[in-house]
């Protein structure tokens, strides 16, 4: 799964990486947690970055708290699950990040947080879905989820799942407006190249949701 990640970029970096016309100012967050706002580039507005709440709330949901359970969507069943299948067809997005956290289970039963990033670039994008929920009173809530897949060889030693990280050349395809061929889309939802990934242990301070500091991505002193 993917339950925490880092987003510490400026608008100039975002516009260059994703070919945007504009991007909003967004405070650096070294510990993005579920139900917080994140930046996303949607297939509805592929020329700008918008804020979405992390944790997808289906349009038909009666209880908004369901979003906290919908932070990830499994690539293997994404076209079948009622909560995700419509968004997969019509509402896809890129979710920028610098890296993400996963917890390695040690032999003694304790867990060590690991910071995972790409060696070859500072910013990348998770494959995501977005949705719009309208309340009976007309209030609009825009939310998103991060797609996960089986771990690659590198990630297997840390966790059996990993977020889908898209290659730059696949951004435009993922952001195809409206409906796109499901088979073609699913072909993009693969584990990222293990040779391009790196990880190291970090402070357990990352366990505290709501705490954000650059120190969280500093390697743990041995």
What does this 3D model show about the protein?
The chain is mainly beta. The protein has a single domain, classed as SOS response associated peptidase-like (hypothetical protein yedk fold). It has 5 helices and 13 strands. β7 and β8 (111-118) form a beta hairpin. It is globular. The two termini are 27 Å apart. The mean pLDDT is 94.
Outline:
This protein has helices at 11-18, 85-90, 153-156, 171-174, 182-186; strands at residues 4-7, 29-32, 37-42, 50-54, 72-74, 92-97, 99-105, 111-118, 124-134, 140-150, 161-163, 165-166, 197-201. With 222 residues, the chain is mostly beta strands.
CATH fold category name:
hypothetical protein yedk fold
Low-pLDDT regions: none
- What's the domain count? 1
Let me know the CATH homologous superfamily. SOS response associated peptidase-like
Give the C-alpha Rg: 17 Å
Number of DSSP-assigned strands: 13
The averaged pLDDT comes out at 94
State which percent range the strand residues make up: 25-35%
Order of helices and strands: EHEEEEHEEEEEHEEHHE
> What is the topology, as strand order, of the major beta sheet?
2-1-7-8-13
CATH architectural name: Alpha-Beta Complex
Largest sheet: 5 strands, antiparallel
Structural class: mainly beta
CATH top level label: Alpha Beta
Helices, by number, come to 5
Query: What share of the residues lie within helices?
Result: 10-25%
